[in-house]
Amino acid sequence: MAPRANWKGFLRLSLVTCPVALYPATSESEKVSFNQLNRKTGHRIKYAKVDADTGEEVANEDIVKGYKLDTDTFIEVTKEELENVALESTRTIEIDEFVDRSEIDPRYLIRPYYLCPDGKVGHDAFAVIRETIREMNKVAIGRVVLTNREHIIALEPMDKGLMGTLLRYPYEVRSADEYFDEIQDVKVTKDMLDLARHIVNQKSGHFEPDKFEDQYETALIDLINKKRTGKPVTTKARPRGENVVDLMDALRKSIGDEKAAKASRPAKKPRKVASGQKEMLMPIAGKKPAREAAAKKPVAKPQRKLA
């Protein structure tokens, strides 16, 4: 079942309009997550919203937004007042312009969404807008309000739908100068470049997301499974970076190591479409330590699939 839409409204190109829905294109729900526990009791930590001065708990209906002017002065803004500020982009993605994809600086990209027709009507208008963007080989730039904020959104054709990518505003992107100014100007010799190119050629391939594995996530699952089964948890030595004394020798050694590694790699087996990461063990019957017994739900999750 598709996830619930984050936003519903209209997509408009001049006088052509159609109802659309915006869905998240990515998910974090498959990652291992932790709760905070009281070390002494194993119970979960609960947070309460309290008045900073009186220390009394405040009900949700009594909480309003406030803009901080100084240490003790706030301007209160109500939900109704925020709704009155509603922009056209609250209900409509208006396409303002078309640009070349290469002109969008990667630093401005935030997150991707899927844009689809909403309901049975408007598919014709949606197709016209989608195919116009595809035919012109452009990216459509519009605006949309999500979580009470207006965002710039870039729309590109993807199969039968559109992919919308939220973009940052210029004030959100830091200048690289303050970070790069102190990097020394180094003259790289042709011999060094030739050796480095050789390493790149040996490692060249194609972008295949299915072969990527979240090694940290796998290590977390191993840790949890060992603790659930009572196996000892060993501390691994942390990798240490080595000082490069002779860059040319390091480059030559890298080429030799890569050749040796390539020769020792087993032949590739065809990957299954539904391949996933290591599976979490099912709950264990019997008594558990206090901390583990406090968990109300079993830790077991279905096997993950890489996106």
Please give a structural write-up.
The chain has 307 residues and is α+β, with helices and mostly antiparallel strands. Helix content is 24%, strand content 22%. The protein has an eight-stranded mixed sheet with strand order 5-1-2-7-10-9-8-6. The chain has a two-stranded antiparallel sheet with strand order 3-4.
Question: Top keywords for this entry?
Answer:
alpha+beta, 8-stranded mixed beta sheet, two-stranded antiparallel ribbon, 10 strands, 22% strand, extended, disordered C terminus
**Which residue ranges are poorly predicted, with pLDDT under 50 across at least 5 consecutive positions?**
272-276, 284-307
Please bin the fraction of helical residues. 10-25%
Number of helices: 7
The N- to C-terminal Cα distance equals 16 Å
The structural class is: alpha+beta
Q: What order do the strands of the largest sheet run in, or round the barrel if closed?
A: 5-1-2-7-10-9-8-6
- How many strands, which pairing sense, and closed or not: the largest β-sheet? 8 strands, mixed
Count of extended strands: 10
How is this fold's topology laid out?
Blueprint: E1 7-13, E2 16-24, E3 65-70, E4 73-77, H1 79-84, E5 92-94, E6 97-99, E7 109-117, H2 123-136, E8 139-146, E9 149-158, E10 161-167, H3 177-180, H4 190-203, H5 215-229, H6 247-264, H7 290-293
Parallel strand pairs: 1-5
Antiparallel strand pairs: 1-2, 2-7, 3-4, 6-8, 7-10, 8-9, 9-10
Helix pairs in contact: 4-6
Short description:
It is built from 7 helices and 10 strands. With 307 residues, the chain is an alpha+beta fold.
